[in-house]
Hints:
The protein is α+β, with helices and mostly antiparallel strands. It has helices at about 1-20, 65-75, 100-105; strands at about 40-45, 50-55, 80-85. The protein is built from 3 helices and 3 strands, in the order αββαβα.
Amino acid sequence: MEADTEIDMAELGEKIIEVIKTIYDPEIPVDIYELGLIYDVFINEDREVKILMTLTTPNCPVAESLPMEVEEKVKSMKMVTDAEVEITFDPPWSQELMSDEAKLELGML
């Protein structure tokens, strides 16, 4: 039975990332995952999710709404019992954190 749980957790992690990829930074036409704003996604055995994320700048215009949107979208997933977003600026976001896909989209490659 344990193997099923592991597969489910890995699958759940992928599904959470798919949901996060539907959320875009309002100033940059790239989703927040490809931008490198998501540092980590933790899922415990009760399927409670904790997302560690950052913002492009501490005074980002969506500093309030973006984390809430991430939390709400992940919380609304059937397989998730709860979700919490923690904001960190350590390490601070930089363009190096962006995926090649995001850099390409923004004409940086």
